[in-house]
Amino acid sequence: MDFHAARQNMVESQVRTNDVTDMALQLAMRHVARERLCAPSQAFAAYGEIEAQIAPGRVLMRPRDISKLLQTIEPAAGEKILAIAAPYAAAVLAKAGATVTLQEGDPRTMAVVEPYLKELGVATAVADLRVPVGAAYDAIIVEGAVAELPAAWLKALKPGGRLGVVLKDGPVGRARLYIRLENGFSERDAFDSAPSTLPGFERSPSFEF
Question: pTM of this prediction?
Answer without folding.
Answer: 0.95
